[in-house]
Amino acid sequence: MCGIVGYIGKKxxxxxxxEGIKRLEYRGYDSSGIVGFHSDLSHPFLKKSxxxxxxxxxxxxxxxxxxxxxxxxxxxxxxxxxxxxxxxxHCCNKRIFVVHNGIIENHEFLKGVLSREGHKFxxxxxxEVLAHLIERGLGLGSLEDTVRDALRHVTGTFxxxxxxxxxxxxxxxxxxxxPLLVGVGNDEYFVASDAAAVVNHTKxxxxxxxxxMVVLTPDGFDIFDFSKKKLNKTIDTIDWDIExxxxxxxxxxxxxxxxxxxxxxxxxxxxxxxxxxxxxKLGGLEPVEERLYNVNRFVxxxxxxxxxxxxxxxxxxxEYARVPVEVEHASEFRYHSLPLDKNTAVxxxxxxxxxxxxxxxxxxxxxxxLLTLGIVNVVGSTIAREVHAxxxxxxxxxxxxxxxxxxxxxLVVLALMAVYIGRMRLLTSEQAKVILADxxxxxxxxxxxxxxxxxxxxxxxxxxKFPNFxxxxxxxxxxxxxxxALKLKEISYVHAEGYxxxxxxxxxxxxxxxxxxxxxxxxxxxxYDKTLSNMxxxxxxxxxxxxxxxxxxxxxxxxxxxxxxxxKVTEAISPILSVIPLxxxxxxxxxxxxxxxxxxxxxxxxxxxE
Length: 610
Ligand code: M6R
Fold this sequence. Notes:
Helix content is about 35%, strand content about 20%. The protein is built from 19 helices and 27 strands. An eight-stranded antiparallel β-sheet has the order 3-2-4-1-10-9-11-15. The site of 5-amino-5-deoxy-1-O-phosphono-D-mannitol has 16 residues, from helix 9.
């Protein structure tokens, strides 16, 4: 939610910051803005716009030279997307400018106090109080001291960047609860919500922790905690390239990311399967291996697509590791009295590693003294750093708001972990080898599914007019049905519900008629016969069916209107294949309905508010 970028250095700061927020647009895109200074400029250069960043760019036909700038792309929480509510926000005399990602929870109270003192507010945002709070302290110390002091009055979350038009050689940034990193270049320095904003300039980054701040000048940077203690932090190196965050010839990021699936599976598996021994190596879990032997129950917390991956994880862990698993919506984890003991481990699954609900669930688990593990894609993200140990997805940057390749990689990691933990218990090397062999064969099988893209596109053309869909699957295919329905909803705005196929007769069947199609995952697995019965029940009510069937299955298609085939594979990893046609179907439905695939309305990639 919201992306911020700040730059100080020899390049034109406005251009660099603008380019930076363009790479963060996936974090929010309802409005944007930028402000820049230079000692030669008599006034700060401030521009804001409603809508996607392209509309801000249109307003920037002539960009003055600037040595320091901050920029913001917004996903509205407080106040509608308007120019007045777009960031940067400024104080009364337009001296202090602030961009902010997060929520100032006590903003109403602070606004009241500041208004009574004479400060004039011009937006409906929570952020504006920061600019006035900082203004109020001016003259009592450096900008850094003033920002630090202002933040003492604030409750809530923030990643902020602040500049002062009377001191254009300093940029101050701070974080609590919202991601922020420092980019270290050659005589140029950056702050940003995400490495994507800086990777084309530098691969050297420092991840700020909560209650830390950085002071950037053209000559260098200093990092402090909020008690003014100077910190010596490690510089990390980003291990991916700018090319990975471009569309690479595809129409949309979502399409590119679906087509990356074969390589993603290879990358996620890479070096982790020792097939001859029927073993899995997960270096990230080695530090907690001893504790893992004693775990007698897992709770997996996650949101959205990652939550659906977690549901597959439950089946996998219970089948292969013989450990009971509960899956919790991360946003609900803290609200009920789940009995937990010291042998329960909590696993967080998160592509971004920044989802506030998931992060808070993990913090709660840590407070309770539990072992916490992460399955995270973004290296160095907050959740990755918060958990005791974990496994990275290695899916590369996922830019499209609709998660596709990250889901695939989460399923691969979960399968690897199920075998890893299973081998600590009863799973034999021979049993492990069966699933591991099939995992190694996945990339080629995915290629075969992707070859049906044109057929799926044509199918979307035939179904684009239907406003409602039911997605059904049993056992391992149930979370796939849920994920297929979510994909369709979020990018094409078509109503879709995912259900365990067996639940259909307990209510949803009432909606079935000739205008309410169903998508059924009907693989030749351990629950095939029962799923087939459900298809017959739909057909008896004249419902249309799109079936996901296994290659070579000549029968199931007779009960469907349209069929997409996927190769046969061990049931436990079948979701990795069966979800791909559903991702492609959602993609083509969205295109056919004229929706903006990569930037669906009302959504943002990284949800850093609770
Ligand atoms: O980054 P995370 O995996 O923690 O994100 C969780 C959800 O916000 C995310 O999966 C969301 O549901 C996506 N839009 C799904 O496509």
